[in-house]
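Minutes, project check-in
Item: structure for the 282-residue chain
Input as provided by the requester:
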Amino acid sequence: MIDLSLIIVNYKQAGLTRECIKNLKAHACRFATEIIVVDNSNDRALREMLGQRYGDVRSIPLARNVGFAAGNNRGIEAARGRYIALVNYDIIPLPGALDTLIEYMDAHQDVGIAGPRLHNPDGGIQQSCYHFPSLLTPVYRRLFFGTLPFGKRHLEHYLMSAEDMSKPKDVDWLQGSFLIVRRSALEEVGLLDEQFFMYLEDTDWCRRFWCHGWKVRYVPSARMLHLHLRDSAHTMGLAALRNRLTRIHNYSALKYFIKQMRGAYSYVAKEKENDSSRNPVR
């Protein structure tokens, strides 16, 4: 039996993908794992490298770049593990992180998705969990309103800046750089929404897990390095109009809020808070 399927979506980053596989193997856990690489760039060099160095890694070449959500879905469809992990190619798990997450999921059957504590290369803690955004969130993040007192309060809430993140905690959504998902929950909730080419697919997915009664949990005892900073989230003002990633991010946000306004989510924050108060996180 495969315990954990690790899915990496590659797009013109054969070197980083190679290093990611190397690091996943270097910190292999005591559970049975498989690694699946979905190649959105149909990279011949990557296929040759995998064949020469990592014959046990399953490769799924795609004819075109279908995006992050759809690419991960092709990997999920091929996965055999009882847990499935989405792994960015710029993730380095620290020793014991994979074991910790599997053991935590085994011990907490009500958790559908969990994520680790992410660190920058210098060791600093990287933001990886959030409250759900409102329509004002992108406005405050992109424009000068976010520097005003009311904007700062809004963003502090969104970023969970004042909360104690030293212990496991229910969160609204987790950054998709590394997510471990319970297969039985996934079969109920469904795959990532492929209308999101990139960005907000993680927000949408976590919200859907909450809608189906599955908890989304931050597990700081599992630690990983994340080498990439999300530049799209920090581009402000007119510069955002010139940044391709920021335009994609804004378009995904528009789709997310349209989906929310159409009533696709039945999530009620108060219900989650009441449930959390009745069942403290451990």
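Outcome recorded: The CA atoms of residues 88 and 177 lie 5 Å apart.
No further action items on this chain.
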